[in-house]
Amino acid sequence: MKSQRLKRKIVPFVFLAPFLGMFIIFRVWPIISAFYLSFQEVKGIGTSKFVGITNYVALFGDRRFVSSFLTTSYYTIATLLTLIPIPLILAVLLFQRRTPGKEVFRTLIFLPSLTSLVVVGTVFRLILADTGGLVNAILGLFGIAPLRWLLLPELAVPSLAILALWRWTGMNIVYFSSGLTTIPPEIYEAAKIDGAQSLALFRYITLPLIKPIIVFVVTISIIGGYQVFVEPYILYPGGRTPGEAGLTVAVYLYRTAFRNFNMGYAAAIGVALAGIIFAVSLVQFQFSGFFKK
Amino acid sequence: MKGRISLILMCVVFLLVSGTVYAQQKEVKLTFWTFVEKHADYMQLAVEEFNKANPDVKLVLEASAYPYEEMHDKLLMALTSGVGAPDLVDIEISKFGLFLRGDIQLHDLTDLVDEYRDQLIEARLQPYNYMGKQYGIDYHLGALVAYYNVDLFKAAGINVDDIVMWEDYIEAGKKITQPDKDIWMATVETSDLWTIHTLMEQRGGGGYNAAGEMILDCQENIEALQFMQDMVYKYNIARVAPGSYYHDPSYYAFVNEGHVASMMMPQWYMIRFTEFMPDLFGKIAIRPMPKTTPDGKRSGMGGGTGTAITKQIDPAKLEIAKQYLGFAKLTYEAHKRIWTDLGFDPFRKDVYDDPELMKPLPYFNNEPVMAVIKDLFAHNDIKPEALGPFYPEIRELLRETVCYRAIEKKEDPATILKEAADEIRALGK
Lengths: 293, 429
Description:
The complex is a heterodimer of chains A (about 290) and B (about 425). With about 290 residues, chain A is mostly helical. Chain A has a single domain, classed as MetI-like (MetI-like fold). Chain A is about 70% helix and about 0% strand. Chain A has 14 helices and two strands. In chain A, β1 and β2 form a beta hairpin. In chain A, α3 packs parallel to α4, α5 crosses α8 and α11 packs antiparallel against α14. Chain A is globular. By secondary structure, chain B is of the alpha/beta class. In chain B, β1, α2 and β2 form a beta-alpha-beta unit. In chain B, α2 runs antiparallel to α13, α8 crosses α9 and α15 runs antiparallel to α16. The termini of chain B are far apart. At the A-B interface, α6 and α13 of A face α3, α10 and α15 of B.
């Protein structure tokens, strides 16, 4: 009897063991190692020296780190302003019974999430090209002079945001759609009987009821925004943006580690980035009333 | 019964024979990483030739081509962690310095190179030499040359051979350039370093001098950056390259459409023309770069990839790997193939007398391109490139900020280079 109870206690852990093992080896351990590494100076293979908090002190005086943090914040805000409302509206439209060709649109919008990133980078460089690019050709139709999208520092973050919008809209629509399906249709029907119009339905039923999903998407967008690496890396040659205008924290971390072989300092940048994301997320939770529940 | 016995006998004989052949032929498997598909093909071809020349060995090369950054990152991780590195690997010149920091995880190839040294161009061995030891062997010389679009020159009534000095170049540029038609004598890069690299190196500047001193803010470099800026704003003969660098697809298309009259690039850029700019067939002439001073040099060196042997190779295979590397990259035949199969300028002196190198190329104005390189040699016109400990960081700065600030922000070249040099000096502290 006792052994049976013991078994029952152990069994779940046996089933969880493969996951936990992998999680500890590939997630927890690297985090601990990175933290440890951030207190060392590693500037060559097999050379490491404990330097205490030197790397962290250096971070504060590092012009590039500060500017990369500001750039990343700018990018995160830009993606929040586009990647929340646009997918939300599209999700609602795709959810309407009357929308024609829903399946086709759903597939088309989701396709970017599945496309090879190398291809995306090359194609987007051609789309945003200053000479013969698609975006400039479209702007030309409206009489707007061609913009040097990939060459001007002012357009670096907007270019990245355009790419992010294209890449993540489909994914966010999936999140919002799943939220929409949880709203009981009776509520809409009742409201309609009371004479509510489409906008009112959206404002007073849809929005409040999918607020948890919105909070979730905002959170992952903030985390994703601050971690942004792939977009600048594929859109600009080797992630090199004009005048470092698109140098994000993650790209700077990568550059420090792999192009300058300064692993300890790179680890410190990583730890600082984790701290920043944690702090921003806390602030966002506070504002969204997450803690009140 | 008889039939069965003879069948068994035949089987036994077959097994014995194949067994002996197997025993004679030692199969050796080597792994090789590169970031250029063509390098992998070339090394594979060298394996076939090597096996023909050495019937007692059967070498098998498992070559993998990865994207540029990814391969170097993977290699750095593998060598740092002590597992997972290939036996042979291509390391690009800008990255090579990273692998010479700390505990060097590459095998010393000095004795191998010594066997061929008298025929090799010493300057091309230097980038991969550290503290007197050779750690890598290049594919090519990478001589800097001028690529001219003959059609555009003809249309302006200029003969490319009349361009001797940079003054001639500027004058020709003023006649050729037509901004309204988007036709330019030159293009400049703002997110890569080739425009500035060619100008700096030819003047005797660069990242380091022969004595190993960092000279990023030297007078020659300032003049080079000033000249690059002047081409755009003073002489109005150049614009920023579409896509901001010479390897962008939109740039290839732009040049292919006949918008660019000239480009200064290493010889290896030839294969970009044949591969990505088919419409310029027969229209591109290759010449030495114009000179800065009457007795100035007409060329320098640019780029490179050193093939190295990592310390993670099975010690039993080291000897044969070295033999193979020498066979693939240092012999006379190898250097002939470097031109015929890879399309690169060899760095072995004697091979330049081979008739195979002097054949005219239909794409390149039907001229023997290697004759230009041979002539540069004969006149000692190729300035060797000197490397130093922070070469990777210098390249990074040139790529990301120096050219951008000079062209897009029109900042003073001396200030830009001084700040960049200070940043490098701070690294050394």
